[in-house]
Amino acid sequence: MGFEAAGRRKFTAEEKVQIVLAGLHGESQVSEVCRRHGITTNQFYQWRDRLIGAAKEAFSQERRGRPKEDRRRIERLEADLARKDTVIAEITEEILKVKKGLWPLRNTPS
């Protein structure tokens, strides 16, 4: 709730939601809500559009069953990561053997 160095107020996400909901509720005009909170109507409408966009995304994900898809995707990515870790470990082990002279890459004439 404090002031920024440039004198601009920084609102929390919760404050922004409360301001937008107050403007949408209809008891006061948007311009009055904006004046009361020290913001421009342009700022209010930007926040409103972001809030509505986030709500649309939340509801559209809910209908598509995204949590199941996300869970499967995470499991697939974790399996890929485990495979990559195994390959990296094998390659690292081979590199260490080469550096120690324990695993020649090619036969050299004696």
Task: State the distance separating the first and last CA atoms.
Answer: 78 Å
The biggest beta sheet reads: none
Question: Which parts are unreliable, with pLDDT below 50 for 5 consecutive residues or more?
Answer: 1-5
Order of helices and strands: HHHH
Instruction: Report the sheet-strand fraction.
Output: under 5%
Give the C-alpha Rg: 29 Å
Number of strands: 0
Domains, number:
2
Structure description:
The protein has 2 domains: 1-64; 65-104. With 110 residues, the protein is mainly α. The chain is 73% helix and 0% strand. It is built from 4 helices and no strands. The N and C termini lie far apart (78 Å).
Characteristic terms for this protein:
73% helix, 2 domains, disordered N terminus, 0% strand, 4 helices, mainly alpha, 110 residues, single chain
Brief sketch in words of this structure:
The chain is mostly helical and 110 residues long. The chain is built from 4 helices and no strands.
